[in-house]
Amino acid sequence: MRRGTAGAVLALSSVLLLAGCGVRLSASPAPSPASPAALAPGATAASAAAPALSAGSTSADPSPAPSASPASSSAPAPSVAPSPTGAPGLAVPSSPAWPLPSEVVPAPLPRAAASTPPALAAAARRVAAARAVKAVLPAFDATAQAMVARSGVPGAAVAIVAGDTAVYVRCFGVRRAGGNEPVDLGTVFQLGAVSEGFTSAMLAALVGQGKLAWDAPVHKYWSGFDLWDPWVSDHVTLRDLLAARSGLPAHAGDELLAFGYGRAEVLRRLRYLAPEAGFRAAFAEQEALPTAAAVAAEHATGSSWARLVRKRLLEPLGMTATTLTATAYAAAADKAAPHVSVGGSLQAQTPRGEDVLAPALGVSSSIGDLVPYLRMQLGGGALGGVPVVAGGALAATQASTTPAGADEQGPVSAALGWDISSFDGATVVAKSGDTVAGSSALVSMVPADGVGIAVLANSYPEGHALAAALAATLYDLYLVGAPREDWLAAGGSAPPAAGATAQSGAPARAASRQARVLPAAPPADAAAPRQRSVYAGAYAQQYYGRVAVSRGVGDTLRVRLGRGATIVYRPWDGDTWRDPVTGTAAAFTVTQGRAVKVRIGLLEFGGRAATFAR
User: Which domains does the chain have, with CATH numbers?
Assistant: First the structure.
């Protein structure tokens, strides 16, 4: 059957099926987002938000018209790229009371008849879900305004996609606390661990083109990558690296950044870290391993990770504001400053560059750019019908691979750059990303319904709580029929459906450390330290590398980690010295009047040994 004829038959069948479900379809084209007819009365398709939290802004779908030339050769492109339709602007309702009024509660999603072909049943479910989401948008918008104001974040941006359209896009607040520059569609936020989804989608594009295979050994593309066990080194695959099931302890390699190592050296040293679990036996959150998968793609193609992401994703999707390096983020004129609480008030911070582990942590993007990204993820790799990533390869990134525990709603697992959980029976694919400097991001989707939400905020942990609460509220409204509780007030009770199997990004890496902390006051019978010359010198260890101990100011010792950070210790008890910042110890072993070993407590966590010898 010819392509056009098949499409016409499918469209007619869909009309008949959906008409039976009470859904009316129009054969006329949807109005353009630029057309006045596409806007609600009194609304405008604003490209910038008002600075006040109470004002905010709503916008039409900011997705660009997709290129007619697909980035992937695995599927033919239609001869004419269809124009994505926009969403009407939303009137601003008053703040909600709990519970919300019953008139905004949508009817339950219809179930397709048993005899309905699977493709038509899936299409019917998506249409019904989009209809349900649109019905609850006034309630969601009122809740979002109230939650943003209560959360205390300086600025935020939210987008909801349903039915392959941005049905809700709104920006709140300002880019920097105390400033007057509003967050708008182009304001760039650091994404943290949400970056992994960009890397897995880029790899999926290469898999679709036959340049990579999910289950081929990494050694096929990059012979220099090794782990502790030679057998594992020979058999580990791209799927294993992205699914975080190598057996290495959580956040392996992240601590090496303090030594000043670059990407190649961090990945090389993973071979010296002993596993904490069996190969493919357990999940442990990782940043270095997705980066290793990206490096394997670089070896396979001869192109850098940044170029591959730009050519395979950003350019086809029209994501012009998205940056892939710390330098590009710093140079962006329209960017949100990260914030953390200092002395009870949110203070802007200098963002930390994540270039070494950029494939897992280094992407920054705007809410306007995340709309076409969400549409592509929900659209089987296509934007407006134009293929960007092969659908089968992209579906693999959203499929559960590794058990990662359970919550009150059911099993939780890891996918390739994503986390999988459930919300009232619906499978949720999500990833949250937080940075120590103070940014939070969330992309959360119900792929079967074609529904997704992206939330960006410029503070942590306030932004993390806000993003989780907004996602849970959306799912409550359109899936359950009413908000079961105020998810922002519930705080940590928000289900993983709103965020992840575990808190992702740098805060989680810091929290995973379980180093022994010494009390500030030394023991009553504490011994005096030896002359500092006894301890001075260079020490080494296979995984971490070299540390140098020298005399510091006053009575302190300085310990420099490789070419990176320096830790200052003060006397505590004999040959044990204490870091007043972290409370951790540097304990020396002295033989015949000379220190021969030092054990650095700050680096001793999660199965890592941190004893350095001369």
Answer: 52-76+86-98+139-512 (3.40.710.10), 532-613 (2.40.128.600)
